Every structure is written in C-alpha cells, then in structure tokens.
Amino acid sequence: MEPTILTREETHVIGITFTANVTEDLGKKLSATTTEALRARKSEIHNQVGKGEYLIQLYPDKDDFDAAIDPFTTLIGVEVSSLTDIPEGMVSHTIPAGTFAQVTHKGPETNLGETYGFLYGSWLCESGYEYARFDFEYWDERYKPEQEDNEIDIYVPLFK
C-alpha cells in the first residue's frame, strides 16, 4: 500500500462536529451517531457538491499527541459550493488547497487503525514530509463500514 501524492483544491464542508479521543469515540459510537444525525438532516444543507461524505479530524498542536488519549475535533459533513446558509447546529470547515498523501483503506472499518498506523508510522517518517495536524476521509458508494469490500479514501496534508 503506497500512498499517491496529489494536489487538491480548496474544499468547503458543512456538517456536525464533536470532540473526543479515539477511545471515547469508539466506546460511545460518536462517529456512527453523528453520521446518522448528518444523514437525517442532509436535506437542510444547500449547495451540496456530489453525494460523498467527509470525516475531517483536526488534531491539537501537541508534540506528543496520542489520538487514543488526547481529544481532537471530528467533523462529519458534505462538500458544498458555498458556505452561506449554514443550518442551525452545524458548522463549516474549509480544507485548504495543497499537497496530500492519499491511500485507500480496503476492508472492514474496524481495521482502519492499521492503515492510519502505516501512514503516520512508517510511511510518513520515511517520506521526508511533515503533516499539517489534520486529515480526512472521503466516503462514497464504496463505504460499507464492516464489509470486506469496504473502501475509504484517506487524505493526509503534507509539507516539506
């Protein structure tokens, strides 16, 4: 599994957010319930682009950050062409344009930690790149969380 290095344009997202560490997220099923809440309210979001969903993870500026222990912000939302008219209880976020490592996780979502471990462990350390304290997943029709044919595109912003 070798990441593809690519350039992405700025992307605007509107969605629902929560703050927790990975342990809390998994234990309380925060991502799952937030995804359900977003899907129930998707019709309130105007100017949607495409049918996919984004899971954006914003990490604190902390040298010894550990996602299993340290809380971070997660936003689950949809791409929009304009950040006007944000529904009540939702937030907006802009993914900046830039260079990204992209890898597609294949297999059950419960194995996603292995893909992140590869990206942030061996690959990033050996790549010569630094990362920008956030990453995101893109879920489209291939997203089938606990099925063997599940696919999730993961993007990690990079800089030298």
From TrEMBL:
Return the Gene3D superfamilies for the record: Regulatory factor, effector binding domain (3.20.80.10)
The AraC effector-binding domain sits at 1-159
Q: Which InterPro entries match?
A: AraC_E-bd, GyrI-like, Reg_factor_effector_dom_sf, YobU-like_regulator
Task: Write out the coiled-coil annotation as residue ranges.
Answer: none
Its name, as the record gives it, is: AraC family transcriptional regulator
Tell me what organism the protein belongs to: Brevibacillus fortis
